[in-house]
Every structure is written in structure tokens, then in C-alpha cells.
Amino acid sequence: MNSATQTLRPQMERARRAWRGSPLPGFLAWWGGELRALLPTRWQAFFSGGNVWCLLRHDGGQWHVRRNGQPQTAAPWSDVLDAAAQQAMLNTAVAGVDRQDLRLALCLAPDTVLRRRLLLPEAARDNLRQIGAFEMDRQTPFRPEQVYYDLRELPGPAPAGRIAAELVAAPRSAVDAKLEHLRNAGIAIDAVDLCDGDKRLGVNLLPPQMARVHRDPRRRLNLALAGAALLLLLLCLGQWLHNREDALTAMQAQVDDMHGDAQKVSDLRKQLEDSAGASGFLARRKTDAVAVVDVLQDLTARIPDDTWLERFTVDSSGHLGMQGQSAKAASLIDVLQTSKLITGANFQGVIQRDPATNKERFYMDAQLRKPASATANAGAKAAASSSAGAAR
């Protein structure tokens, strides 16, 4: 298990650096702060989870504790107190911080730490700690086994293909005494760092094998909640698919009913077309009516080129309606008087000039002439009616 952890550590460090370098942490921190600000004051502390770093500094035989980023320090205590007293003083100093979120960093004095700025290839970003061990012999008078060290990437511009980094190292002799004293007092720390004002610098001089392992009891609850959320999501998707299948089944049933109705209509239409009276009626209507194609051809031949129609209607009684625009609309009456298919052409309404086309807009009514066969049939019917009346 330990070898597997060592193998995965570079990949985990690479993922952490990529996450910290992305804009997502800042956005999520801002978003979470805005959401917490909307909650009642008593609830805000409950939802303000996350690691809370407290800086532990030894100065003149006294231990001082303060939260990261806050200038005020808690009441110091002497390093000659027994273990129980020192633990009690530390608990008082970090009162109000959840034990699961508490992280302790031992801050060293600046004059006990060696710092060197380096320019490294970009490929070194994924293995900074090993690069730090290699650079130790070149940049410092110490060997890697003589110091606690860490290498951090510096923000800001750097030459192309290079990254700016800082090597931070402290002699083991200066750190081991403090670590031994804290172990004897029963105080476990998470990092050895350097104070940068009222904040920690952001390095951890402790080797990975000396880092404290935190067992978070809330992780199991968080995993259970995440699993429940995933299960609910899958149930919602399944319900959505089930509803779609029900809707599709209902629509298919409606389509089948409509197909049956359409088949009945088709059967009735076939019966109507098969009847002798219907076929004779349609034949007579076709013989007695003027073809619309012939009317359109006649109008096309007679209407001038500077005239066009926007609407053309013919009803079952032969009434003809035309709407359009012409350079000289009044002359259309004379043009249509000689037509063999159209009679009684008259304007309806007032002729108006269209400002967009500078032509006269008109609406005209007319009547289709009946074919000669239809007139003859009408005359024959009239004569037959007269003869029948005389016979009576």
C-alpha cells in the first residue's frame, strides 16, 4: 500500500498543481462565500468547512499561536510546562476550530531558513521535490540529508520554456529540537513552514513520510451522500425515460385510431366516386366550366408588360377577382373587353398609386363567359320546359 502511494504521489501532485493553477478554486471560493452570506448567522459557521491553518511559532521559550492571515495571536505559553498543560493551552488557542479542519504549521524564524530563487525547465514542474534534492548540492552548502527542504513554484512571468521556483531549506539540527519538543508534548503538526507576514509562505519542509495522516470521519458520510445523489439522478433519468415511453405509447394508439378513421373516409370516397350520379355530375361540371389555365393564358397574352397581378381568384360561380399594379390601370378595361373568356370587367374601389413602386394599385371584378356547349345546353333545357308547358 505504501509503495502504491509513493507511485501515485507525482500524479496526485500534478493534479493538485493543475487544480490550484486553474480559475476554478477562486470561483468556487467566491461562490461559496456569497451563498454562505445568504444564510442565517448561526448557520454560516456550520457551512464554512475546510482546512483552517494555525501557525505555531517558538520565540524566547514561548509558544505563540495565531490563525493564518490574522495578525492577533492567542495567549502564549512556556515550553517548560508539562505535556497536559501545553495541550490545554493549545486547545484554548484554537478554540472554535473544528478538530477535523484544524491544521498546525510550525513556523521557523526567517534567519534560520535558506532561500534561493531558481529558473527551471517547464518539465521540472511535475517533480519539484526531486529537483530540489538535485539542486541542493549546487545552491547550498548542505546535502539533502542534512536539511528539511521544499521547492515551490513562484507566480509571475518567466522566460519562455522556464518556470520560476524558490528553494527553501532549513538545517535539521534547528528543526529537530522543536519537533522533538512538540512530540513530547503530544502536539502533532502538519507542516513546517516559514511565516510571510501574518501568513504562511506555503511550503512544507516536512518529508512526505513524516506528514501526519488525517482520517476524516465525514468522508464516509460525504461518500454516502454522493452515492445517494447519484442514485437519485439515475432514478430521475429512469423516470424521465419511462414517461417518454408512456407518451410514445399513447401517441401510437392515437395514430392507430386516426388510421382507422382515415380508412373509413377513404371507403366512403370510393363509394361516392363509383356512383353514376357523381361521375356524371363531375363530367358536366368539367364540360360547362372554363379551364383556369385558359383564363390565365388569355390574361397573360392581353395584360401589358408594365402590369402584374398580386392576387387572382375564381369561385365556383365564375366570379373573377384580380388585384395588382399597373402603370396605366384605367386602360385594362379596354384590354379585357375583347376577351372571349372574360366579360363585365370593372374596377372595385379607388385606384391608388403605390409610393414604393410608383405604379397604380387596382382591384378588378369580372365574370367568366360560359362555353358554347353550356349555352346550348341551357337553351335546350329552356325549350324543353316551354314545350312541356304548352302541352299542359
From TrEMBL:
Domain of life: Bacteria
Biased composition (Low complexity): 372-392
UniProt xrefs under Pfam families: PilN
Keywords: Membrane, Transmembrane, Transmembrane helix
Disordered: annotated segments: 371-392
Membrane-spanning intervals of the chain: 221-241
PANTHER family: DNA UTILIZATION PROTEIN HOFN (PTHR40278)
Protein name, per record: PilN domain-containing protein
Source organism per UniProt: Dyella acidiphila
